[in-house]
Amino acid sequence: MISGVVDWLVYGVMGLSSATAIGQAMHYFIYDSIELLVLLFLTVAVIGTIRTYIPPTRLKRWLGHNSLKAHVAASAFGAVTPFCSCSSIPIFIGLLTAGVPLGVSFSFLITSPLVNEYLVVLMLATFGWRITAVYVVAGMLLGIIGGMVLGRLRLEKHLDADMLALPKERRYSSFKQRAMTGLSESVKLVRRLWYWILIGVGIGAIIHNFVPQTTVESVMRAGGIFTVPVAVVLGVPLYANPTALVPIAQELFIKGVPLGTALAFMMATVALSLPEAVILRRAMNLRLILIFFGVVAASIILVGYLINALQPLLV
Q1: Residue ranges of the alpha helices (H) in 153-285?
Q2: Cα(3)–Cα(28) distance, rounded to whole angstroms?
Q3: What is the tens place of the pLDDT at every residue in 38-57?
Q4: Is residue 60 pLDDT above 70, yes or no?
């Protein structure tokens, strides 16, 4: 339904052509902005309502201390949510405002765009079960270990103060009161984040529609021994739907790019992006964003080199 309305607005009212980059970029911007804002509103409202049944002190006791069990649970939750790096942010923020530790929340944010059911299906069809299994395990481990490392660094001081302010415990006499509390929290958060989301999606629309794939391929193949870091550096600023990246990774591999390098490019593009950094800026300061990106990017580089070493056993 939303897609049809956006088609009518962009290609009908605005008169732009779907065959042009500007038309595709405008469609991308409007559609993804609506999708992310609606997702943010609904997710925070639902989590806010559910949270009224769980006192903040109890939630922190369940998921506190960055335990391995909590990280595994957050990573597994991320693996079954079909979101991209930007779409995962509303749930990440919801977890933080519900009192879930920063490191555990990061385990979700890292894994969610990397591993999901439709990405696994596409990889099975294009790469086979061995490579897909390695990718899924690597994605899960990246989330678990990355979240644990970030949790150990005790970076909560770099979060926006609103992210650390647990709601006061109160008594509710009806579900309506609980739902209104969730809606109130959602409205406040959307008011604080909407313009960051629009900026982030706008940057993503420009990159997605105006950066030629052939340019990325040529730069990557010229990297030599440093192809994996080059692939990650190229992938981090980009923003693309995970389903579009599987055939790109396959094409890179067919054209002679090592398997680990191709998958590292896909992982970096899926897990990290410039639009994601812009949206996260409202929840945390620049230093924490750089640390988060640095830890995840370094981990992806290591995974890329490891898969390159294992390539003879996988293909």
Answers
A1: 161-164, 175-210, 213-221, 227-235, 242-254, 259-271, 274-280
A2: 10
A3: 877 887 788 778 767 766 55
A4: no
